[in-house]
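Class, look over these structure tokens:
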Amino acid sequence: MDIVTDLSTKIAEATVPDEIDLAPLIAEAFIRGGKEKESLFGRQESTELGAFGLFEGILLFPWILKGIAVASPFILKILSVDDENLSIINNLLGICDKLKIKEINSKLPEKYSSVLTTVFDTFSTELKASGLPDEQCEKVISNVVITLLKDPSISVIFVEKVAGSK
């Protein structure tokens, strides 16, 4: 399985499980760019039940990819954390439902907390544009970052491909 297929499937599984089957195709279209990428952000004809409630035929996964692309410089910094802080970040993001991002950041060294805040701020802007409720944005972003941190060296390649889309 190639990197794009593997990671797009894992990210979809962690964030929008009802879009798992489409995730690799969406990711490839997003990376290719152009009209294919643009078409991913159009509303669909039917209303579908998404992982976070009823959406009027909108797929959330393209917005997740857009968030990754926009926040990529900061995500790449998070992917380069040392092992000790990687463990701390993973544990704190894993309990994101109970903690807000500001509480998580208070437990991290400054050099990572400011980057993580920027990831959340930048990424959530894209997710909110999709219509995702504010209260769900942090959970989705946490799950994306946790998934990417499982294999940082491979995730760097994925993030760079998504960020480099036209």
Remarks:
- The chain is about 65% helix and 5% strand.
- The longest strand covers residues 48-50.
- Residues 45-49 have pLDDT under 50 and may be disordered.
